[in-house]
Design brief:
The chain has about 450 residues and is mainly α. It is built from 18 helices and 2 strands. It is globular. The structure holds tryptophan (TRP).
Length: about 450
């Protein structure tokens, strides 16, 4: 329970690896590069950096501070900090539900990466055309059994790591996987320099084009920064509760944000030269990762190796993010209901499997599992990222900036007055006024009102 001694991350490097592991995910690889390219290249990147600095990083700090102050899972953190105000406990509960829902479909997509990793290692699609690979992918998704089994494998691996605990499981794995991910990505980006399409790829990703920048670009950059830093569901707060009491939160948050953006940019440097070398127009999302890129790998000399490296990297990115989502649920169940972590893990795993299987089933042809014209997987994706994440993100910010009290917030942000004393004033100003305003704009925009 809350008064038991909690684990905390063992070292600075471990802390960064775990937190960056959560932030670096599918969003960095299949969404950011394309968004940047489509929305004005370097101009978009500059806006993204400003929005990250002024909005997303303060929210990240607020979430870390919430977790570290509350010394508990996201629900318990609210309960510890505002024992009598039950409404805030509901915000914590929403975070747990959101994490659960997101992980159930994230696991399905991560399962696709595992499938492609397997297919790349066995070389089974080498030489195939884009059309053949597209058909292969459709058959796989619509077959049902394949995606179900790979999602199951992914969730069992995630649960297995959580069972080993915060230090021996999550931290140790992240410390191995994140450096490997960076090395693989750098290798791919360096290799891409030698491809014919390099110049064109760089031009697409980087050439500043201010004419493409509008208000909606700024909102899009904000949404992406928010998603990419894993904000809004209490994952960062849950992890925040494991950050050492002496650690400088500003140092941690800025390192994580820089690493997250660097990985997103590197992914663009690795991907677009390949795309342009073969004269294909760039896309984003599942199509880029599971059809376009595999079909290019299939034509490249040495493509099987490149493909295997790419999908292993994608798998590392996905599973380190999955740790943080499942930890939200496991920490909640074990701390709030006094069950062992093992029992909490099995319970979450069971629930996640059921929902993941429903997501898989919703993608079969003629499936009846649709909500508002969308299959269950797409519905959960849109509903969580457009409604639940921003709303609970906004609630967390309001709680930290207005309810907790300025003294407690400043004390936690500065680690008891040790660090960043001059930054805390501006941070609290941003959290009180600028961030909530921008978040409301974002929410209205996501809901289609603005
Ligand atoms: N940041 C992850 C990515 O870029 C995705 C994500 C969003 C996430 N919210 C999260 C991961 C919460 C873990 C926890 O793909």
């Amino acid at each position: 329970m809350a008064d038991k001694k909690r684990s905390s991350f063992g070292s600075r490097f471990g802390t960064i690896a775990v937190l960056a592991g959560s932030a670096v995910g599918l969003g960095n690889i299949w969404k950011f590069p394309y968004m940047a390219g489509e929305n004005g290249g370097a101009a978009f990147i500059l806006i993204y950096l400003i929005v990250s600095l002024l909005i997303a990083v303060p929210v990240l700090l607020a979430e870390y501070a919430l977790g570290r102050r509350g010394q508990s899972n996201i629900f318990g953190a609210f309960r510890n900090l505002a024992p009598k105000q039950k409404g805030w406990h509901a915000v914590g509960l929403t975070g747990v539900v959101t994490a659960f829902l997101i992980l159930s479909f994230y696991a399905v997509i991560a399962g696709w990466s595992l499938y492609f990793l397997w297919e790349s290692v066995t070389g089974s699609y080498m030489g195939m055309s884009a059309q053949q690979i597209g058909a292969k992918f459709d058959t796989f998704v619509e077959g049902g059994w394949g995606p179900a089994i790979w999602a199951l494998i992914f969730l069992v691996m995630t649960g297995g790591v959580l069972l080993l605990g915060v230090n021996k499981g999550i931290e140790r794995c992240s410390k191995m996987m994140m450096p490997m991910l960076v090395v693989m990505l750098v290798a791919l980006a360096v290799g891409a320099c030698f491809m014919d399409g390099w110049r064109e790829g760089m031009r697409f990703l980087l050439r500043p084009d201010w004419s493409k920048v509008t208000t909606s670009t700024v909102i899009a950059a904000l949404g992406q920064a928010f998603f990419s830093l894993s904000l809004g569901m209490g994952a960062m707060a849950t992890y925040g509760s494991y950050i050492d009491k002496k650690e400088n939160l500003y140092g941690v948050a800025s390192t994580v944000a820089v690493a997250d953006t660097a990985v997103a940019l590197l992914a663009g440097l690795a991907i677009f030269p390949v795309v342009f070398t073969y004269g294909i127009s760039p896309t984003a999302g599942p199509e880029l990762v599971f059809i376009t890129l595999p079909s290019l790998f299939a034509q490249m000399p040495g493509g099987a190796v490149v493909a295997a490296v790419f999908f292993l990297l994608l798998f590392f990115a996905a599973i380190t993010s999955a740790f943080s989502m499942m930890e939200v649920v496991v920490a909640y169940l074990s701390e709030e209901f006094g069950m062992s972590r093992t029992k909490a893990m099995w319970l979450s795993l069971g629930g996640l499997l059921v929902l993941a299987m429903l997501c898989v089933a919703s993608q079969l042809p003629d499936s009846v599992l649709t909500i508002g014209g969308k299959n269950l997987l797409d519905f959960l994706d849109t509903f969580t990222s457009n409604v639940l994440l921003p709303l609970s993100g906004l609630s967390i910010v309001i709680f930290m900036a207005w309810v907790l009290g300025r003294k407690a917030l400043a004390d936690e942000l500065t680690t008891g007055g040790r660090y960043a004393r001059r930054l805390v004033g501006p941070t609290i100003f941003l959290l009180r006024y600028v961030v909530p305003l921008m978040m409301v704009v974002l929410i209205l925009n996501l809901l289609g009102v603005l």
